[in-house]
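ok new one. same drill as before - structure tokens go in, u give me an amino acid for every spot. 249 of them this time. try not to just spam alanines like last time pls lmao
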């Protein structure tokens, strides 16, 4: 009988240890920590190391595209990825594609399927939200270093991966890259960018209801050279020229 209290205490201690152990997370979940925390916080890291207001927006096939801060009353120069940390990719036809780690694209939260008529399908919208060259010229120089671009800057376009006319964020560094010339370019002639035509056709299809905004955004992020064929829009005509917009917006 004198030993009974000691036995009961030992059993209680064993039970407490077992309950405590079952409440711990396993090491197998450690790889999910960063993603789950970001999802709960509603933020994602941009190449500059800053956080955007929200991490991503639903897109075609369950994929996501980052969401940028949207149009600003006053833009500031955004930090670009460190020099030499981004690498161009090229299609079989030698058309340039951005590094998806540096330039995954970013959408404008003001442009949704429900706001098309008052945003990208309204004449003058992109001119209203476009950052000035006092901002973009400095970003372009820094981004050229990010990608290791050595050619004349006047022959390359500082391109919105998701263009403004497709609901891309105006000044999120994740949506901008120095796009080198396409094949057939003449040195000193300025950018020759067939991507602009693709963007114009996609805008026409969005505004006419032939495709959805999110699907077009996802297609051009994946590969702008195949975006039209993926969406079945190879015969689409470009959108009417907006007199207030710049080429490639």
């Amino acid at each position: 009988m004198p030993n009974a209290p000691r036995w009961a205490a030992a059993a209680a201690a064993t039970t407490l240890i077992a309950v405590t152990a079952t409440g711990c997370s396993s090491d197998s979940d450690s790889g999910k920590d960063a993603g789950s925390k970001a999802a709960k916080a509603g933020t994602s890291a941009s190449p500059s190391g800053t956080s955007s207001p929200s991490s991503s927006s639903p897109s075609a096939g369950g994929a996501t595209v980052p969401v940028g801060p949207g149009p600003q009353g006053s833009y500031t120069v955004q930090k670009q990825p460190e020099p030499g940390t981004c690498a161009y990719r090229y299609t079989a036809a030698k058309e340039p594609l951005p590094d998806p780690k540096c330039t995954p694209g970013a959408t404008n939260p003001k442009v949704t399927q429900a706001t098309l008529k008052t945003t990208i399908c309204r004449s003058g919208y992109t001119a209203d939200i476009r950052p000035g060259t006092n901002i973009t010229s400095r970003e372009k120089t820094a981004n050229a270093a990010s990608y290791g671009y050595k050619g004349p800057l006047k022959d390359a376009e500082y391109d919105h991966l998701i263009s403004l006319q497709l609901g891309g964020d105006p000044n999120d560094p994740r949506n901008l890259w120095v796009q080198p010339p396409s094949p057939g370019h003449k040195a000193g002639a300025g950018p020759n960018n067939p991507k602009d035509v693709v963007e114009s056709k996609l805008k026409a299809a969005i505004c006419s209801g032939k495709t959805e905004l999110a699907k077009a955004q996802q297609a051009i992020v994946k590969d702008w050279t195949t975006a039209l064929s993926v969406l079945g829009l190879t015969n689409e005509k470009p959108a009417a020229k907006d007199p207030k917009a710049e080429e490639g917006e």
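Residues 4-22 form the longest helix (19 residues). and btw The two ends are 88 Å apart (CA to CA).
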